[in-house]
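Posting this for the archive.
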Amino acid sequence: MSLVNLIQEKVKANEVVLGYNRVIKMLKSGKPKMIIIANNLPKDKKETILHNAKLAKVEVKEFDNDNVNLGLVCGKPFSVSVLAIKGSDK
């Protein structure tokens, strides 16, 4: 399954958390299955996400396109720099 299809499937099922601050909060409190970041996420934010994901042992994938296109894939009228797929198996 491609990354785009996975994102669209999880958005339809309401199993995603959008936005940098909400993803960081989820990493610290819950445990997402996977984190997807846009390729133009600022370096400092990317390093913070990668560090927290490493501590939580969560897989991070980089979307091949920018945040505007990631927002379009999610079906949102705004840009999305980072999203987390909720983990059902804790």
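The mean pLDDT is 92. Strands lie at 16-18, 34-37, 59-62, 82-85.
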